[in-house]
Amino acid sequence: MSVNLSAPVLPMQLKRVDCEDHQNTHTLKCKRRRLSQPPSPGLAPCLRPQTHSTDHTSPEKPCLSSIGPYVLLEATEGTQTYRAVHRTTEQEYTCKVFSMRKYHELIAPYTRLLPHENICKISEVIMGEQNVYIFFERNYGDMHSYVRKRKRLQEDEAVYLFRQMASAVMHCHENGVVLRDLKLRKFVFIDAKRTKLVLQNLEDSCLLNGDDDSLTDKHGCPAYVGPEILNSRQSYSGKAADIWSLGVVLYTILVGRYPFQDVEPAALFSKIRRGTFTIPETLSPRARSLVCCMLRKSPLERLEASDILLHPWLHCSTNVFISQHPNSRHSNDQVVPDFEKSDKGVCY
């Protein structure tokens, strides 16, 4: 994969400090899920009660507590993402820790993209001796937690939020970035009222050279993966695969469950290959139309990201939606279970 770092410079600061803890840097490696991991039991994983891991053999959390002017607090996702506070301003951030050798590869999608209101922004980068610490604006929970708490969203709210998701995906595709591992958890709220979404975590993305979006690897999340990835032994369209995943996202927020799900991974993949799913009659005709236009078995028949934003469903409401469910940082529903240690096959 060719990485292009010649894109416009992001509005961030780059510093080097030497105060990191070297004893635990091995625990900060970035992990990536693959399709071979089976989904955990349960008919509706996105609505399942929170579980806690009892696995005591996994690596302990690193002892690192500060870097530069920031204090690192509890881990928020695995062992490489932390809630952080600036000592002087007391402003909160999200900090991601990358190994030095992986830094340029993982940061490349961020540097490729021009600024966009629905793509997360890098606030600052601090270079340690062995790791790189990247600080993003604070978030107020992700869409997985929000949908799990609300069960499903009413269409007015779904229109308002999904339009922002589709806009983020379109911006990535127009700039040669294929997301590959698109799912609910990657969209986070950046306001306490939960009305503003950004796409976070671009580390699994693939950068394209030119207009050819052909990919060959089988990277993705079982619940969101497209049938062509499971069927094809050759290349497939990365952008079309993203649209399928985005269709799964839309179905899930409207219905409250995945369109394809099963306890056994083989059965799950068989359902995805067939591409047959049911849509509740309670959804409006326009909502059902958009879902079907994205979850088409043939990649060539799916809408492109720019076409999604022109669909009538996204323009059927003239009222601006205002959330009536303010966020609580201490709510258990906002804590995503550590699936790296417990339910490894589940991706949200």
UniProtKB/TrEMBL annotation:
The Protein kinase domain, residue ranges: 71-314
GO biological process: positive regulation of proteasomal ubiquitin-dependent protein catabolic process
Cross-referenced PROSITE patterns: PROTEIN_KINASE_DOM
GO cellular component, one term: nucleus
PANTHER family reported in the protein's UniProt record: SER/THR PROTEIN KINASE-TRB, TRIBBLES HOMOLOG 3
Keywords: Protein kinase inhibitor
Family membership: Belongs to the protein kinase superfamily. CAMK Ser/Thr protein kinase family. Tribbles subfamily.
Disordered, as annotated region: 31-63
Tree of life domain: Eukaryota
Protein name in the entry: Protein kinase domain-containing protein
GO molecular-function terms, A-Z: ATP binding; mitogen-activated protein kinase kinase binding; protein kinase activity; protein kinase inhibitor activity
UniProt xrefs under InterPro entries: Kinase-like_dom_sf, Prot_kinase_dom, Tribbles/Ser_Thr_kinase_40
